[in-house]
Amino acid sequence: MFDFLKPDYYFHSIHDVPVSFYLENGIKGILFDIDNTLEPYATELPGEKTLKLLGTLSENNIKVAIISNNHEPRVKAFCEPLGVVYSYDSGKPSSKKIHAAMKTLGLKKEETVLVGDQLFTDMWACSNSGIRGIFVDRINSDESFLIKLKRILEIPFVKNIKKKGYGAIK
Ligand SMILES: [Mg+2]
């Protein structure tokens, strides 16, 4: 039960994942959540670490798209300087925008992973899309009331994930 919330991999931060991890696991495309995954909610533009990460992925021919549930102004302002494929109001856990981005980038399910900090949106969306998921710890606790509520529901599942290890979740 609740297997749809289970990530395939768990890391503290997306910056803890070396490029070799993607290459060894046959990952050719990464779909990123923005808020509390790449940057905190309050950070309007991609920071130095995000720019460096995306640069490294690009050098290694790993394709990138951004799939955010946040609204157009936030997502557009964040993504346009990056020049990446992006989607706002994505409605995760729906698979709709995920499949659309994969089609645009020419990615197969088995070579695509989504990175996110929430189980009920990001990881559930991976299950609905048939792709792998990387779950990361949120960057900080500055979140909306609704997300704080979802965090309470996440507690037992997150505890279980952390018990199962770091990196690949058994
Ligand atoms: Mg998020």
Radius of gyration: 15 Å
Tell me the series of helices and strands, N- to C-terminal.
EHEHEHEHEHEHE
The CATH architecture term is 3-Layer(aba) Sandwich
Number of strands: 7
* CATH fold label: Rossmann fold
Fraction in beta strands:
15-25%
Structural class: alpha/beta
> In terms of quaternary structure, what is this?
single chain
Helix content range: 25-40%
Q: What's the structural domain tally? A: 1
CATH class: Alpha Beta
| Order of strands in the sheet with most strands | 4-3-2-5-6-1-7
What report would you give on this structure?
This protein has about 170 residues and is an alpha/beta fold. It has one domain (about 5-170): Rossmann fold (3-Layer(aba) Sandwich). Helices cover about 40% and strands about 15% of the residues. Strands 4-3-2-5-6-1-7 form a seven-stranded mixed beta sheet, sandwiched between helices. About 35% of the residues are buried. Magnesium ion binds next to loops.
Map the helices and strands.
Elements (H helix, E strand, L loop, with lengths): L8 E3 L7 H6 L4 E4 L15 H12 L3 E5 L4 H8 L5 E3 L8 H10 L6 E5 L2 H11 L2 E5 L8 H20 L2 E2 L2
Parallel strand pairs: 1-6, 2-3, 2-5, 3-4, 5-6
Antiparallel strand pairs: 1-7
Bound molecules: magnesium ion.
The site of magnesium ion (MG) has 7 residues, from loops.
Brief rundown of the structure:
With 170 residues, the chain is an alpha/beta fold. It contains 6 helices and 7 strands; from the N terminus they run βαβαβαβαβαβαβ.
Descriptive terms for the model:
170 residues, alpha/beta, Rossmann fold, seven-stranded mixed β-sheet, 7 strands, 16% strand, binds magnesium ion
